[in-house]
Amino acid sequence: MSVEVKFIVSVDTSKGQCVCLVGDDVRLGSWDPVRAVEMQREFTGQNWKLWTCSVILDKNATYGYRFFVSKQRQAIHKQMDTDAASPTCPTTLSNNSESSVPVTIYKWETNIKPRRLSTENCDGVLELPEASFGTYDDSCNVGKGWLINQCEVQVRLHSNPIYMWKARHREQTFSIKCIAMDYSSQGGPPFDDASDDDSRDGPDPCSVDDVLVC
């Protein structure tokens, strides 16, 4: 016997983000964010915060689960397709390998104990009450995500490390632009002493994922 369980959660999200459900059953992803259930935004009047999904679970059973906010999977696959088509930025991701799909987690419910639901004596459909992201068991705990199968590069500038030689430039405001470059085609680091190439031109830039400026 099975029960269709409808999950509903209210959470603020930004463009390109979605809400996912993960739990202690294979149909809930077995706590693996890569295999989590992606929820769908549900518009109710002026409320843009509601996200819902339905999962078929066993009757007379108990499950633990959590919600987290991640990058939309469609945006991830679109980026993978773009990278795969780029001759200068070959991707090692395999569309046939679920574990290789990158997952960007922005925030996660971090209460020590997960949410719990019971399907005991339920028939047909069980619609859970609307949940507030991060809030249950009389407490609210939300933490930042972590890297799963990506890499992160942090560039920090402290204590005015850049000095302008000309006095007229010292009172002006400047911006610093960081661009990811692909040096793999050159076969070595950008400033290899053994290289005879005196060109100031760098390699082609790579497409990047998320850029956060603090």
TrEMBL record:
State the protein's name: CBM20 domain-containing protein
UniProt-recorded Gene Ontology molecular function terms: starch binding
Renumbered to this chain, region (Disordered) spans 189-209
Q: Which organism is it from?
A: Candidula unifasciata
Q: Which Pfam families match?
A: CBM_20
Residue stretches making up the CBM20 domain: 1-135
Q: What is the lineage of its organism?
A: Eukaryota, Metazoa, Spiralia, Lophotrochozoa, Mollusca
